[in-house]
Hints:
The complex is a heterodimer of chains A (168) and B (356).
Chain A: H1 9-16, E1 27-35, E2 38-46, H2 47-52, E3 63-65, H3 66-71, H4 73-83, E4 84-88, E5 91-92, E6 94-97, E7 104-108, E8 111-121, E9 129-132, E10 143-148, E11 154-158, E12 164-165
Parallel strand pairs in A: 1-10
Antiparallel strand pairs in A: 1-2, 2-8, 4-5, 4-9, 6-8, 7-8, 9-12, 10-11
Chain B: H1 8-12, E1 27-29, H2 40-49, H3 53-67, H4 75-83, H5 93-106, H6 110-123, H7 128-140, H8 144-152, H9 159-172, H10 176-189, H11 195-211, H12 215-222, H13 231-243, H14 247-260, H15 265-278, H16 284-298, H17 305-314, H18 318-331, H19 335-355
Amino acid sequence: MKFVVLLSLLILNLASLPEAKAHKFSTAYMEVSAELRQPRLLWKVSLHDLAQAKLFGPQPLTQISWQQVIAHKEELTLYIQKHIAFTDKLGSCSLAVADTSNWRTQQLQQQLYLLLPIDATCQSPEQWQIGYQALFETGHNHKLLLSWQASDKAQAVLSKDKAIYPEY
Amino acid sequence: MVWFFVTLLAFTDVSPSAVEQPTGTTVFQMQPELADNDNLLPLLKAFQAAPSTTNRLQLANAYLQRARRPGWSSYFHDAEALLANFQAEPQHREHLILLQADILQQQHQFTAALALLEPLLSATPHQLQANLMAARIHLALGDTIGAQRACNRLMREALFFFATCSYEVTGRKGQWSAAYSGLKALLQQNPDLPAELAIWTRGILAEQAEQLGQLDAAVAWLEPILTEAPTSLWLKWADLKLAIKQPEAVYQRLVTLAADVELEDSLLLRLALAEQELGHPSHFGHQLQQQMQVRILRQDQEHAADLAHYFLRVSPDPQAALQWATINYNSAREPDDLALLTQSRHAVALLNGGSK
Lengths: 168, 356
């Protein structure tokens, strides 16, 4: 039975072992509040998740400097504008990511999060709604825990299957 | 679902760390640091230098293997990201399907994983890796007939694999004693197995010894291979050690691990249990509580075993434990999943009996 060693053991590991029973869950947070009748968003997102979505370059990273993070403001802005939509009764609101001097970091659940303030400019203070499609393509279990502090106060969980809040 | 009403604001107020404004020179570690001689490094460098299909698949394969080790499970997401929307040339498709199927089974999408393997098995019925993975998935679904069918396809070309695969299925059919004796004999005939095969075989033997009530023997199968073993076997080892009242060993081993890597929730839970049983102040228990709050807020249906264990063993709430154990059993039906469900039902029965 020595022939077994001739087989590809690297792939064997993958094939024969049970599922790992160990998983990291990708979670981001969004606080939506109102200031001067306009929405203000604070997106708390794991730096690791942003790196996996290749927002800091196409190659896998083992470490990153703050300088590298803020140097990618344009990529992050484009990504946010493509994957996060804010609308009001009259249509789309524009989104602008705050200046990098207002970006912060925070440790949440032993992970490093980037805190990105985002200003929305809407035409109407009515029927605000957020649509969230970020990070689902690179993290199948990614979810957004939403804290809605504008008009009605509520919490919601947005996922690939339920990516809009509130529903009118 | 009372637990869902933990508010997000309340959650973020649970001992949040300070908000910081880093300076330009601050460097953040994105993954656990790799040692200079880590076998991932050359694959990573090769892919960075030339992102060919071969280099991509080899790196994804290495990520998936590493992700099974304690503290490295974030590499599942790296593998997923590496293969997202990726199409391989015909000569690489078989390898890509195996990797994608493994990712799906990690996500508990067992039926989708089997569907992905199906055309590959139709075209090459004796394909070793595809059959071993199919057998594993059938066992996860509690389908011993499907698992045996996959093992049988290996009979002609890979006898050791056929035998080991079949002994695992035989045990799962309830014939634990026969399977255990047979597999022990097979291991004795093959004393110099490569590490990967020894881990596989000893993991099955540990389960069989446990099912026969031989907990010390089960631990003994695992201890020689634990350092190189996947997280699932670390969990089995920790649960066995806790069952034979040796929390100190669990605490020492996992606290050492936690110093180097960020523990997955399942391992953190065993560390918190050991901490609790030893009467230490709740450090890891507190971390675990925060993790579980997020898991509850997320309303996940996948990987619910962690929550069932939490409400059964760390922060007792039998009704909650039963709810999560039931959710878990709906997707995974291995002996440990059934045991968790049974224990949760028992805890609820005790609660109801006690309140009368």
